[in-house]
Amino acid sequence: MVQLKQLTIFLIFMGFASILFIFLSEIFHLQRISQRFVSIKAETESTRYWKSKVLPMLYENIILSIGLLISIYYIRPIWKSIRNQYLFSYVFLNIHQLAIKLPAILYQHYFVDVSFGVYTASSGKFFIDLILHYIINNLLFTAFVIPTILIGNRLAPPTTQKIMIEDNQDQIADSDPKLENLADVDLQELEEIEPDPEEHVESSQTAFRTSPLWIYLGGILISLYILSYILYPTYYKLFHTIYKPTPYIDQKSLGNQFQNFTFPMKDKRNESIYIIPNDIDNFYRLELMGTIFPKKVISSNILSKSVPEELRAGAVYLDSLIDNQANLVGFFIGLLRPLLFIIIFKVVDAAGIKEFHIRPGKTVPCVLLVSFAFYNTVMIYAEPLIASVPRYFQKIADCTSVRSGYPMNVIISRIDRANFATVTHHPIFSLVFVKTASPEERFANIDVCLKSGKPKLM
């Protein structure tokens, strides 16, 4: 009979395997790259949906299956005692979706999507998307869980003390009735037998000094984080051309022209600036600058009927006015994430956790997954605090830029011809898709921060 404590530990251990997907997605921008790929090359609505929605779910299920495989191997006594392993896996998946993912989805819907006008508060489309997401995720999990369990059962044969003793007792009782009255072996005591940690290291303090793995891991994570800021813009510089303003348009006069349009904000989704569909590819760099840092945007109805040359020059002009100091704050705030994981990994590796068969100072692959679990638990409570710091600095920058009369904050939004809109929200990264009044064509919509008295923050 499996103890409730062991099952709870197993659920936590396996459930937070999905943090691998979140961490890798944040470092390599998998979700945002896939969304841009959809925007560039998608032809139909169904193609856009499959690549923007199903592809991230596919990544997540692959990582989830890896976590399941590691769990099966390292927690063999618990796994072998589960009668219906497939049913247990499905129960775990649904608990994982309802307890971890659903609150985040609802938060994004009511506090992000609705505030930007993507959905109404009682939008039926949102709930249809949610149900469809739930069904597709279960189908994808089916494709991965069956081979994963089959492979895991072959890699983790029942060689533990507990199962061997149970089998031997049954064989002895069947072969000789006289031995049926022998005293039962206390399986709980045998299960809790652990080697003396002093045989491997003298103390947890020694593990801090003798295990250099956390240094290598920290160097890799921080390097990847910094490289993402270098390689990601370089990718767009190599494959996309940034349009330069034509010589007969002066940036200074263009700035004065922007200042002349100071209409009060009447609607969060007003016309703003429209760019013809053929020129959307020229604004990816500007879009990247707008998504590096969460923006507080003040809308104004400006230059809605300007010529394309003015719009191109205006985009480059706004690009040059984005606050570099604010982006620098966002960079250092984001750097807290790999540093926090390194600290948690170091503590788990040095202290050890008996339930996960982690001995002090003896690093095994299981340490990584357990560290991710604790990291995710801490981030649930630390995320709002981390997000509030750059937003505070950004609010100050907004008010400063508004008083000086220069447009600073830009959010680029790509709209498809079906007027389908969504919001990808992250405390550090945010990509906003806003509906427009013209569903027939694809437009890039620019909301700019202009001088209009007191800031009207969205």
Automatic annotation (TrEMBL):
Q: Which residues cross the membrane?
A: 7-28, 57-75, 87-111, 131-152, 213-232, 328-351, 363-382
Give UniProt keywords alphabetically: Membrane, Transmembrane, Transmembrane helix
Keyword set includes Glycoprotein: no
Q: What is this protein called?
A: CAAX prenyl protease 1 N-terminal domain-containing protein
